[in-house]
């Protein structure tokens, strides 16, 4: 419960900084907001700690899932979805790829129950609640939109393609059997990360 509060309120601070920058741009419009979450102590209750937050009324939408896969059309096609993607890109760039706000979901522009992925050692003393593999998947899957361009964010696609090209050039010199051996454990490892995030 305490970690849930820490994660959401940390993400909220990043969202405030994002909003302050985005709101100065002509034509950007409304910016997603991560609502605050509060920890309360109830000593007389069987469950002494609980969280309290604003009730969101309306259609609840998952704009991104924890593992970073862009599977939701509302994420890709709606204004809120695109601005959530841009927020993720903005945080990724501001933290030099060390932190990513994930699991963006809510009603319209009001978001709650978010996650944060960091490097294993954390970022500036803060550790997220999601696997670092989510950052890698975001880097591979993110597609910039008009809001990324308005904020002047660098395309991740170009960087990722350059890395892949360099990797594929190296693998041509290796025997095909060793290439296969190297790829299998990586896939298995990614699958394990995904399974563990569900629990």
TrEMBL record:
Residues 1-156 form the Alpha-type protein kinase domain. PROSITE patterns: ALPHA_KINASE (PS51158). GO terms for molecular function: ATP binding; protein serine/threonine kinase activity. Residues 168-180 have a biased composition (Polar residues). Residues 190-199 have a biased composition (Basic and acidic residues). It is found in: Basolateral cell membrane. Pfam families: Alpha_kinase. Its main location: membrane. It catalyses: L-seryl-[protein] + ATP = O-phospho-L-seryl-[protein] + ADP + H(+); L-threonyl-[protein] + ATP = O-phospho-L-threonyl-[protein] + ADP + H(+). It is an enzyme of class 2 (transferase). Residues 159-199 are annotated as: Disordered. Belongs to the protein kinase superfamily. Alpha-type protein kinase family. ALPK subfamily. Protein kinase that recognizes phosphorylation sites in which the surrounding peptides have an alpha-helical conformation. Regulates cardiac development and cardiomyocyte differentiation by negatively regulating Wnt/beta-catenin signaling. This is Alpha-protein kinase 2.
